[in-house]
Amino acid sequence: MRVFSKDKPLLSLKEALTGAVCPMDIRQTLNIVEVEYWGFDEQLHKGQIVVHASLTNETRSIFSELLQKRFPIQSIEPIVVYHWSDNESMQENNTSGFNYRNVLGTERLSNHATGRAIDVNPKINPYFRNGASIPPNATYDVGRKGAITPVIAQVFERRGWRWGGRWREKDWQHFDKTAQGEH
Ligand SMILES: [Zn+2]
């Protein structure tokens, strides 16, 4: 029998978008997706992730495959829980999708801003910019629990998502899938 550990109550889409400073046309394309995942405590959990509605089914199947592989994930909660602070969410190693924000250190809108990107276990899979890790003092060690390996990345890549771990400036936590031809 599968037993869920005690998780926080699930949010409605409206609750998950409370306080989001985001244009209405983007807001209307978002969906909240319930997923199951294998926790760091080796128990089954339910989480929620806000993504572009067109990525709903893929998001479900990606997380179900990660669960089958027993890939440990710390938590999966919408960024509203972290007061819309990517930094707070990263510090807690929380996996999330939509966040209306720019690419760090740029004026360019992130793919997270349209719900077309997901960051997985961000503290264990940091982003490196100009040689410094974000979050600060984080390291990437492929042998560490919750680190994204190429095998795990392929769960996304087989569905046409890109992995930031393949980029010159490594963004180990980051996966995205833009609308066709938009890259
Ligand atoms: Zn990201």
Brief summary of the model shown:
This protein has 183 residues and is of the alpha/beta class.
Explain what this protein looks like in three dimensions.
The protein is an alpha/beta fold. It has a single domain, classed as Muramoyl-pentapeptide Carboxypeptidase, domain 2, CATH 3.30.1380. A hairpin with a 2-residue loop joins β7 and β8. The relative contact order is 0.14. Zinc ion (ZN) binds next to β6.
Using the alpha-carbon principal axes, give the shape.
Answer: globular
> What name does CATH use for the topology?
Muramoyl-pentapeptide Carboxypeptidase, domain 2
Number of helices: 5
Query: How many discrete domains?
Result: 1
* Gyration radius from CA atoms, angstroms: 15 Å
- What spatial order of strands do you see in the largest sheet? 2-1-3
Oligomer: single chain
Question: Alpha-carbon distance between the termini?
Answer: 43 Å
Give, in order, the helices and strands.
HHEEHEEHEEEEHEE
Q: What percentage of the residues does DSSP assign to strands (E)?
A: 15-25%
CATH class wording: Alpha Beta
Would you report the number of β strands? 10
CATH architecture: 2-Layer Sandwich
Mean pLDDT: 93
**How can the largest sheet be summarized?**
3 strands, mixed
Question: Which molecules are bound besides the chains?
Answer: zinc ion
